[in-house]
UniProtKB/TrEMBL annotation:
Superkingdom field: Bacteria
UniProt feature coiled coil, ranges: none
Cross-referenced SUPFAM superfamilies: EF-hand
Residues annotated as domain EF-hand: 37-72
InterPro entries the UniProt entry points to: EF-hand-dom_pair (IPR011992), EF_Hand_1_Ca_BS (IPR018247), EF_hand_dom (IPR002048)
A GO term for molecular function: calcium ion binding
Protein name: EF-hand domain-containing protein
């Protein structure tokens, strides 16, 4: 006999569990979670751009990723103007510009 849809009850229970988990996660510290996400993304971008793994992204490396007209964006990201973008500079730039390098 399958008068009562057991599958449905189980699905509802799973859905409720997922909602509870999402609420708990969101309640911890949305700001921190977002900041970590941004830092993680910038680190990923940085690692992708730093082809020779010397810990800095120079203009040639930057242009390989961002295109040949990226001089202005490079200058904007290279906060101390030493010709190399550090992870800190990239993270700060991406945090201020919504997560991606943009194009100029
Ligand atoms: Ca490099
Ligand atoms: Ca720099």
């Amino acid at each position: 006999m399958r008068a009562f849809p057991e599958e449905e009850v189980r699905m509802i229970r799973v859905a409720m569990l997922m909602m509870a988990a999402a609420l708990t996660f969101g309640a911890i510290a949305p700001g921190v979670a977002l900041a970590m996400d941004q830092a993680g993304r910038s680190k990923m971008h940085f690692d992708m751009m730093d082809k020779n793994k010397d810990g800095g992204v120079d203009l040639a490396e930057y242009k390989k990723m961002m295109g040949p007209n990226a001089d202005a964006a490079f200058a904007a990201t290279d906060a101390d103007g030493n010709g190399v973008i550090s992870l800190e500079e990239l993270t700060a730039y991406e945090a201020a510009h919504g997560g991606h390098g943009g194009h100029q």
